[in-house]
Amino acid sequence: MPTPRPTYDLVIAANRLPVDKVIADDGEVEWRRSPGGLVTAMESVMRSQPGAWVGWAGDAGEAPEPFDEDGIHLHPVPLSTEEVRDYYEGFSNDTLWPIYHDVIVPATFHREWWSSYQTVNQRFAEAVAEVAAEGATVWVQDYQLQLVPTLLRKLRPDVRIGWFNHIPFPPVELFAQLPWRAQLLDGLLGADFLGFQRQADARNFVRACRQLLGAQTKRDRVTVEGSRRQVRAAAIPISVDFNGLEALAKRPDVMARAREIRASLGDPEVLMLGVDRLDYTKGIRHRLKAYEELLSERRIGPPEVTLVQVATPSRERVDAYRILRGEIEQTVGRINGELGKIGAPAVHYLHHSYPREEMAALFQAADVMLVTPLRDGMNLVAKEYVTCRHDLGGALVLSEFTGAWHELHQAFACNPHDIEGLKQTILRAINTPAKDKQRIMKALRRRVSDHDVQRWAARYLAALAAAPDLPQAEPRNPPTPHEVETPLMPSPSEHSAAGAKGSPS
Ligand code: ADP
Ligand code: F6P
Predict the structure, then answer these.
(1) CATH number for the domain including 204?
(2) What confidence score (pLDDT) does residue 222 get?
(3) What is the number of other CB atoms lying within 10 angstroms of the CB of residue 352?
(4) What does DSSP say about strands 270-277 and 305-312: parallel, antiparallel, or unpaired?
(5) Is the C-beta atom of 314 inside 6 A of ligand 2?
(6) Which residue among 216, 235, 254 closes a domain?
(7) For residue 292, which of 324, 331, 263 has the smallest C-alpha distance?
(8) pLDDT value at position 477?
(9) Ligand 2 neighbourhood includes 98 CB (under 6 angstroms)
(10) Does the beta carbon of 314 lie inside 6 Å of ligand 1?
């Protein structure tokens, strides 16, 4: 008789496992850290508590056998070549992703993609049902798995189900474009608690249930039709492992590497840095446009000022991503060709993934961090930058269209669509006196250290355990006004269905 599989009291379900299976040129199997903020955050949460992680291993075909890694039980879910194309690249990243990010590029709708999304969500629900212990807590992650809560509830009514959206939830006028809008909302309403990055996202969800399903809603609660069940939808913004990352950034070898990076760039007076997945939501073209104009107008220039742009490869077979890569690389080539100097390029462009130590060193080396997304659920890079600046050096330029901006108001705020304004903000970030920048950095660091990823997970799990009611008490400090208030400045998507458009002008 085969031995029964072990089961777990805490199960995470996410599209990706924290590691990707990669076949090296010599045919050897290698495991590499998966890209993206979800993995960064969830990995540090799961390292400190026993549990299982159900997800895709990152390549098409049969799934590897379940295995344990650094105290986490990893349970791979297989995806066929067609499912990678239709469920992951198609429905998740070419239908949902654009709709959930203000339609910066047009969304594509295909019925076969939807069908594949349903099939894969069912497979995830079955895999979770297999590893969840009686009465377990199941924490489903992100937009790729929106049908899992209801599918899982049918299979395992005994488990408590939470879902957290790492990306924005769109205004109803955009969400309504989805031909499968009602099924997606029904899928989510299988959860006991739904977590979002911003209050506006939670409100968008509740409004969508009211307007598109005719559901009864009261404040942050939705009553599920045909049952007395209530589902609560609230904002619990994600964060970084402040203590762990700060300790890494304080390591002598990492600090030495930061100095070495600056030296290898010719010890510029001002080193600017961008770190993003190569995604059209990140506003990389807008950033380059502002930088190029500042150089052409001779307001800044190499070798005194230089820019390092790290652009992590992402979703490279989706057209919009392929086109973006071409545009960025052409722009970098043009800027360097026209405005660089021998031995002093204006942009150092790196299309790689790096170890955490190297990222921490880069953050420490940078005088100005450019975070300019057109729309971003949170943007952990912004929080990682301030975490690494234990020296209180550096300045953060931060788009108002990131979740992070709703917590990090003291940063040098920018609207990336406003190229003239972005140029002014970059100059301000460069020229503000060091003492003032230190004061700002101190405030930013206090916010992130008080609201780290451990606190986020504790708050989320307490809200899930208490749902549909509010949790009894906060695990640590009570939420600050930013968490309970309406955002100070409504974003364009809250005003209009047209959304933002992607071209810098
Ligand atoms: P997203 O989830 O959209 O990718 P975030 O900014 O929230 O955006 O998270 C990105 C995560 O990926 C951060 O933890 C960041 O440090 C990491 N990261 C980004 N680029 C690289 C890279 N080139 N090498 C290693 N890690 C990277
Ligand atoms: O949070 C946004 C997100 O889509 C995560 O779900 C994902 O892990 C990350 O960005 C990277 O994207 P992908 O898994 O498609 O490479």
Answers:
(1) 3.40.50.2000
(2) 98
(3) 9
(4) parallel
(5) yes
(6) 235
(7) 331
(8) 52
(9) no
(10) no
What gap in Å lies between CA 240 and CA 238, rounded to an integer? 7
Cα gap 171→495, rounded to integer Å: 9
500 within a domain of the structure (yes/no): no
Query: Which of 398, 407, 487, 414 lies closest to 444, judged by CA?
Result: 407
**498 C-beta neighbours (distance < 10 Å), count:** 12
- The predicted-structure confidence for 388-445, as pLDDT tens digits, reads as follows 999 999 999 999 999 999 999 999 999 999 999 999 999 999 999 999 999 999 999 9
Candidate from 22, 89, 139, 142 with most ligand 2 atoms within 8 A of CB, to mutate: 142
Q: Which residue do the tokens 């390549």 mark?
A: 59
Q: Which helix (H) or strand (E) holds 131?
A: helix 111-131
Whether residues 206 and 255 fall in one domain: no
Number of folded domains that form the chain:
2
Q: Are residues 231 and 249 in the same domain?
A: no
- Going from the Cα of 111 to the center of ligand 1, the distance in angstroms, rounded, reads 32
Please list the residues that pair with 51 across neighbouring strands: 72
Half-sphere exposure of 211 (CA within 13 A, CB side): 13
| HEC string for 165-230 | CCCCCCCHHHHCCCCCHHHHHHHHCCCCEEEECCHHHHHHHHHHHHHHHCCEEECCEEECCCCCCE
Lookup: tokens for 488: 């100070």
